[in-house]
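Work Package 4 report. The design task specified in the project plan requires that, given a folded chain encoded as C-alpha cells, an amino acid be chosen for each position. We show below one input record used in the internal validation round.
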C-alpha cells in the first residue's frame, strides 16, 4: 500500500516521503481500515517534530485520526455493547502507533473507534472527530460550561476554535470569536459567533471589555498560548475559567498565580488524549452526543479543503503557518 512516512523526526513538510509499504498487521485491541479520510491536526506536526506528549520512533506514518471501512478485526474482538465490528463497516477514531492515517490503510484503537452511519459524510465525520471531541471535553467535561454564560474563543477560525464556537452556541452561550484577518473573521460570523474581533487590526482587550461593559467573560478557550494568554487572563471575569487547549503560537506562557487569586478564576488543562490511558469512559458519551448532533444538523464542521497524496506536505505547512480555516482533510485518492 502507499503511505507517507517520516524517516526521521523533523518538520513534516521537509521530511515526509511517499513509500510503498506492507499493509499494517492487526494486533490485539486494533482494527484495520481502508482509509477514506484523515484530518490534519497541529498535534500531527508536533509528533513529527518529536515534541508531542505521545512520542513515536521513526520510521512512522503520521495522522492521528481517520475514518474508513473495516478491513480486518482480530478474532474475538468485541465492544462493551457486544456489537463488535463488521467487515465493511464505517468507523472513525484515533490511529495506533506508527500506522497513522496518511496512508491507504491504517490501524485504529478499537475501544475508541466509533461506528458511524453510511449516510454520514466521512469527510465531515473525521473533520469533527478530534476538534469537536477536544471542544466537548473542554467545554463540558472540564469547563462545566453553563447555558447563558459568556465565552471568548481564541483562534476561532481554526479547527478546535471553530468547534468551540459551534458547540458553545448550541449550548446557549454568548460567544465572542477572535481571529486574524477578514477571511477568518467572516468564517467566524458564518459559524454563528455573536461578536467577532479581528486581532490583526483591533485591540483584543479593549474590544472585549467594551463588548462586555467591563466585566470580561466567564470562559476563555485558548488553543494559542503565548502573548494571547497574557491578554486572555486579563479578560476573564470573576470566578471565570481559562481552558488551556494547546500552544499553537509555539510559546508556553507562565501564569502569575497572584492574579488568579485576586480574580478568583481557574486555569484548567484540557488534554483529551490523556483520557485514553487514564479513563476512556467519557469518549463514548462524547461521541454519541457529537454524532447525534452531526446527523441532525446541529453542527456542521468547517472544512477548508481536501488534499491528496501530492498536496499533504504543503497542507501541513499551511496549517503550521495558520493559512487555513477549519479543517484540512487528507483523502488518499
Amino acid at each position: 500500500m502507499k503511505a507517507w512516512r517520516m524517516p526521521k523526526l523533523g518538520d513534516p513538510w521537509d521530511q515526509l516521503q511517499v513509500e510503498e509499504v506492507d499493509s499494517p498487521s492487526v494486533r490485539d485491541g486494533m482494527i484495520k481500515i481502508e482509509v477514506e479520510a484523515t484530518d490534519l491536526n497541529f498535534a500531527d506536526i508536533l509528533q513529527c517534530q518529536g515534541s508531542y506528549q505521545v512520542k513515536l520512533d521513526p520510521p512512522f506514518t503520521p495522522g492521528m485520526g481517520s475514518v474508513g471501512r473495516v478491513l480486518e478485526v482480530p478474532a474475538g474482538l468485541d465492544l462493551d455493547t457486544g456489537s463488535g465490528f463488521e467487515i465493511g463497516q464505517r468507523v472513525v477514531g484515533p490511529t495506533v502507533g506508527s500506522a497513522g492515517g496518511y496512508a491507504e490503510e491504517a490501524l485504529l484503537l478499537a475501544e475508541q473507534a466509533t461506528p458511524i452511519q453510511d449516510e454520514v459524510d466521512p469527510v465531515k465525520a473525521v473533520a469533527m472527530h478530534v476538534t469537536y471531541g477536544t471542544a466537548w471535553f473542554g467545554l463540558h467535561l472540564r469547563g462545566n460550561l453553563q447555558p447563558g454564560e459568556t465565552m471568548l474563543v481564541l483562534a476561532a477560525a481554526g479547527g478546535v476554535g471553530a468547534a468551540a464556537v459551534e458547540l458553545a452556541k448550541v449550548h446557549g452561550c454568548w460567544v465572542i470569536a477572535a481571529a486574524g484577518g477578514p477571511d477568518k473573521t467572516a468564517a467566524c460570523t458564518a459559524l454563528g459567533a455573536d461578536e467577532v474581533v479581528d486581532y490583526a487590526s483591533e485591540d483584543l482587550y479593549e474590544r472585549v471589555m467594551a463588548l462586555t461593559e467591563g466585566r470580561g467573560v466567564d470562559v476563555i478557550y485558548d488553543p494559542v498560548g503565548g502573548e494571547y494568554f497574557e491578554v486572555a487572563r486579563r479578560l476573564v471575569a470573576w470566578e471565570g475559567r481559562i481552558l488551556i487547549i494547546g500552544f499553537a503560537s509555539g510559546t508556553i506562557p507562565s501564569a502569575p498565580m497572584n492574579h488568579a487569586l485576586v480574580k478568583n478564576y481557574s486555569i484548567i488543562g484540557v488534554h483529551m488524549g490523556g483520557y485514553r490511558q487514564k479513563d476512556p469512559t467519557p469518549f463514548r458519551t462524547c461521541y454519541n452526543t457529537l454524532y447525534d448532533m452531526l446527523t441532525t444538523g446541529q453542527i456542521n464542521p468547517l472544512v477548508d479543503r481536501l488534499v491528496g497524496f501530492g498536496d499533504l506536505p504543503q497542507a501541513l505547512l499551511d496549517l503550521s503557518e495558520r493559512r487555513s480555516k477549519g479543517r484540512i482533510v487528507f483523502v488518499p485518492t
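The longest strand covers residues 30-39. Validation will be extended to a larger panel in the next phase.
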